[in-house]
Design goal:
heterodimer, A: 256 residues, alpha+beta, ten-stranded mixed sheet, two-stranded parallel ribbon, 8 helices, 12 strands, 34% helix, 24% strand, globular, B: 729 residues, alpha/beta, six-stranded mixed sheet, six-stranded parallel sheet, 38% helix
């Protein structure tokens, strides 16, 4: 994947996911795919809701997710001719705190009737109506003071910093295991990363956009096009030694 | 006409300045002139504020310092200081005036059109001292400065300006003195040929921003107590409160000021306005944010708010939105404030300014009351029609509560504050919207042409007049036909006279949402590519709240196909800017509050007929329409949109009038826009009339016949009209 292809990917994925992504900030700055006025820092763990709000205020993101305002950062650094990827950092920062997520999930599960035995059907419905109304008021007017840890994940491609099995050149950090580096085989292109985040963190939105009622792709050609142009895959012995995440790839592999 | 504007308390006891003011008034009585007391504030070495500043069209601006000394009280004068007999030493008033005039002169000279035209003149007034006594004691007269002496010789006031200031120059001078110039947009002097929407917007932007009489009073008159500013959308409430905050901070740099509001996006807007106004007044300084707090009422994760600050001081953890909502689902913030009120609240602020007061629960006002030092200088701006959720319009005594004896803590009734500073202001003029757009918003907001009849109503003639209308005919009685019009001067936006090739209001109905969104995207594409409108001058609002993100992303993707970028502010509890350069703004109604655009698209307008929340829906519609500074394009689908379109068409076909049947007020929400001044005038007149009726009839006749014929005729006319109204009632 050349830098021009990466940039086209970003634009294409924004159009493809325009019901899911918004407020794009990506730019091409010489040999980098980045966002305007990027500050190259990584948030300390735990990442708090206020940290994400601050990232947003400072415009430190590539896309925002319409559903909840969560942020996606996509950064690629290429060599001068733009045909070789030198480094990458792809991150997702959710705005949802753990307990909000748990409550939300619980509310969406019909088999969890919280104290329903104490409520009449009419009361339950009326409660729901109140919540709907308040939510819409909330959206515009009231900020939440609650500052709690949020979910996040980050894929880093930094071959110069790699140190063997425990620090592979491409690895993923996730909020639940912030000190761990999960080995990643390959570097996701922009489309793949968005696909990954949507499927992993917003399964309903993903299913609606991509899948049929049985949970399979409506249009397989579409997902093939997502994986059509890839960062060349670099074989490594560690892939035979350690469980790892694998990025789908379609282009030729190359040996180290 | 000579107009006196008293900006702070104290004039009523300032006998010396009153004497000088009478001389000045007499001198300029036949001229269009404005005289300010203790205004403007311009940062100088000693922070002098002139006692009187006089602007006229035929005379150079006069800056007058009035000194209250008898000759015996002054021991000595020299270049830098004056020594007084009580051992006080004061800065030389001549030098102070010179400092002030130099700074003011440079403000005028910043504007090309005033260079070489205006030279502010300093005047020292010593109305208790005669020139001869002064000369006798100090050997010299004050030759370097024009002086007003005890004999009241006002010839030194004359400093003619020829030719007199043109309308444009006069507007600019007043705008500079008001401190309104930061509102003006930079523009080239080259003429603009208006050929499309984009050039029409550029031409509209060139008009000098000048506060009208009501706005000026609301912005600069600082009372020693509570004040209410009422005004509908586009009357400039936020700007005026920001200007007031900057004035107060400049005048009282050691006093603590709080500016609070409800809509998150006002953080940046309010901060920028206050900072710009302060910068302009002070000649290049920024406010001290330690003394001037801009706070959201509740607070956010990244910024403190009034409530979260208070919890810090009280040593308790603030309730999060979700926790408060569990305890009071209908008004979580009311719950938070009630909890805070249970703990001691110590005063912290000398002044509090509240924007969007209609959106706050009562308990918040009680918190604010306790946060204020005496004399509780709170100023709150209220807009009944923008109250998106409240069904009640509480009176001040309900908002702030009562003291231990059951007396209201705040009452806006009774005499004005000393110096004639009003307790409440109503802003009649709506600057943002052109009149057809504003009238459409009012008619829909009240439901004047709704198939189901009105849902809220201004209940009397005076209230309609207070929001800038004229009652042409009809009596405010159930089932009576009423005709109301809006004078053009109360909606000064002249976009349709600048460009009339496109209707200001367009309403379109579509078969389905896809078709509707396609049309919106196409129309925006045309606005940008053919009409020369910048994307940031366009805002799209979805009236259907639950579906808003869905519809707005639908517009986003369609715009992308046209290669048009857009932005959706406010997906996090943030303070995102509206009108990002080169991007169309896609917004929910709540986010749109407090913001504006030249072209406003309102999607899913069919939700107007979602009867579940009729008043709220109509208020939201009102808010959406009044975001527009020029054109409104309304779209929707299905039968509801057909109904909405019929309603819109009926409204538009009656403009510039409203014609409606007065409803049964017992079944709808009553809106009251009468001012306390008006109520006071009515009460005073009633008292006078009763008095006249109670005295000997012959004495009354004698009194009336001795009146000036013009006044007599006026009274006869008023009595005749009153008889007519009584007959109809």
């Amino acid at each position: 994947m050349k830098i021009s292809e990466a940039y086209q990917h970003l634009h294409a994925t924004y159009i493809d996911w325009s019901s899911f992504l918004t407020n794009r900030k990506y730019i091409r700055d010489n040999s980098r795919i980045t966002w305007s006025e990027r500050k190259p820092y990584v948030l300390d763990n735990p990442v708090m809701a206020s940290d994400v709000a601050k990232l947003f205020e400072e415009g430190q993101y590539t896309f925002q997710i319409v559903e909840d305002g969560s942020l996606i950062q996509i950064y690629y650094n290429y060599n001068k001719s733009g045909d070789q990827l030198l480094a990458a950092r792809l991150a997702f920062y959710s705005t949802q705190t753990y307990d909000q997520k748990i409550i939300k999930d619980a509310l969406t599960l019909p088999e969890v009737p919280v104290l329903s035995s104490d409520l009449t059907e009419a009361e339950m419905l009326s409660d729901e109506n109140v919540l709907d109304r308040i939510d819409s008021d909330y959206e515009g007017n009231i900020a939440d003071l609650e500052d709690k840890p949020v979910s996040w994940l980050r894929i880093e491609y930094a071959p110069h910093d790699a140190k063997g099995v425990l620090h592979h050149d491409c690895h993923m950090h996730i909020s639940a295991f912030p000190m761990s580096r999960f080995i990643v085989a390959g570097v996701p292109n922009p489309k793949q990363f968005i696909e990954f985040i949507a499927a992993l963190c917003y399964p309903e939105a993903y299913a609606k956009h991509r899948l049929n009622e049985h949970g399979y792709y409506v249009n397989e050609a579409k997902i093939q096009s997502v994986n059509a142009i890839c960062v060349p895959f670099i074989e490594s012995k560690v892939f035979e030694q350690m469980p790892h995440f694998r990025i789908p790839f379609a282009s030729a592999t190359r040996k180290r | 006409m000579f107009e006196m504007i008293i900006t702070v308390p104290g004039y009523e006891n300032d006998v010396v300045t009153q004497t000088v003011e009478k001389w000045v008034r007499n001198f300029f009585k036949d001229e269009e002139s404005i005289c300010y007391y203790k205004y403007p504030i311009v940062k100088t070495n000693t922070d002098i504020i002139p006692d009187l500043t006089v602007l006229t069209r035929r005379n150079q601006p006069l800056i007058i310092r009035c000194l209250p000394y008898q000759i015996e009280e002054i021991r000595g004068i020299n270049d830098d200081i004056w020594e007084l007999e009580n051992d006080d030493i004061i800065e030389s008033p001549l030098q102070e005036l010179d400092d002030f005039v130099t700074r003011l002169d440079s403000k005028f000279r910043d504007h090309r059109k005033l260079r070489g035209r205006l030279y502010p003149q300093a005047l020292l007034a010593l109305p208790l001292i005669s020139e001869s006594r002064f000369r006798e004691k100090f050997g010299v007269a004050l030759q370097s400065i024009s002086t007003l002496w005890k004999n009241g010789d006002t010839s030194s006031l004359s400093s003619s300006l020829a030719p007199m200031l043109s309308d444009m120059e006069w507007q600019l001078v007043r705008s500079i003195i008001q401190g309104a110039t930061p509102l003006n947009k930079p523009s080239s002097a080259l003429p603009i040929k208006v050929t499309n929407l984009g050039t029409a917007i550029a031409e509209l932007d060139r008009q000098i921003k000048l506060l009208d009489r009501e706005q000026e009073r609301a912005a600069i008159k600082i009372a020693d107590g509570p004040q209410l500013i009422r005004g509908l959308a586009g009357t400039g409430k936020t700007v005026l409160l920001a200007m007031r905050a900057a004035h107060i901070h400049l005048r009282y740099p050691d006093k603590k000021i709080l500016f609070t509001f409800n809509t998150q996006s006002l953080y940046k807007q309010a901060g920028k306005l206050i900072s710009d106004f302060y910068y302009d007044f002070s000649g290049g300084e920024r406010p001290n944010w330690n003394m001037l707090h801009i706070r959201h009422a509740w607070g956010g994760r990244t910024r403190s708010g009034v409530y979260s600050d208070l919890c810090d001081i009280q040593g308790v953890t603030p309730y999060s939105y979700s926790a408060a909502r569990e305890r009071n689902p209908k008004s979580p913030f009311q719950f938070c404030c009630e909890r805070a009120l249970k703990l001691p609240i110590l005063p912290q602020y000398d002044f509090i300014l509240v924007d969007e007061a209609q959106d706050f629960p009562k308990a918040f006002f009680r918190v604010l009351w306790k946060l204020l030092f005496e004399p509780h200088r709170i100023c709150w701006a209220y807009d009944e029609l923008q109250s998106l959720s409240s069904l009640e319009i509480p009176k001040p005594e309900e908002l702030f509560g009562r003291d231990k004896n059951g007396n209201p803590l705040v009452s806006l009734e009774g005499d004005p504050y000393p110096g004639g500073i009003e307790k409440d202001f109503v802003l009649h003029r709506s600057y943002r919207c052109p009149y057809p757009v504003l009238m459409l918003a009012h008619a829909i907001g009240l439901g004047l042409y709704s198939p189901n009849g009105c849902i809220q109503m201004l209940g009397n003639k005076s209230s309609w007049e207070s929001i800038g209308y004229v009652v042409e005919s009809g009596v405010f009685k159930q089932d009576e036909q009423i005709v109301i019009s809006r004078p053009l001067e109360n909606s000064p936006n002249r976009i349709s006279s600048i460009y009339d090739k496109q209707s200001l209001v367009v309403a379109e109905s579509f078969r389905d949402r896809e078709e509707e969104l396609d049309w919106v995207a196409e129309s925006i594409h045309r606005d940008i590519t053919q009409e020369g409108v910048a994307p940031e001058q366009i805002m799209v609002i979805s009236l259907d709240m639950p579906q808003s993100k869905h519809y707005l992303t639908g517009v986003q993707s369609r715009l992308l196909r046209h290669n048009i970028d857009s932005t959706m502010p406010g997906l996090i509890d943030d303070t995102a800017n509206f009108a990002e350069k080169m991007k169309v703004t896609l917004s929910t109604i709540f986010r749109a509050k407090g913001n504006e655009a030249y072209i406003v698209y309102i999607l899913s307008f069919d939700s107007l007929f979602d009867y579940a929340e009729e008043i709220e829906n109509r208020n939201r519609t009102f808010t959406s329409i009044t975001r527009s500074k020029a054109w409104v394009r309304i779209t929707g689908t299905g039968k509801y949109m057909e109904d909405a379109k019929k309603e819109i068409d009926s409204i538009l076909s009656d403009l510039p009038f409203f014609k409606f049947v007065f409803p049964d007020m017992s079944t709808i929400r009553r809106l009251d826009a009468e001012t306390s001044q008006r109520r006071r005038e009515v009460a005073k007149t009633t008292e006078m009339a009763s008095k006249m009726a109670s005295v000997d009839e012959k004495a009354s006749i004698a009194a009336l016949t001795s009146l000036n014929p013009e006044i007599f005729e006026k009274i006869v006319k008023i009595v005749e009209e009153a008889k007519e109204v009584r007959r109809e009632n």
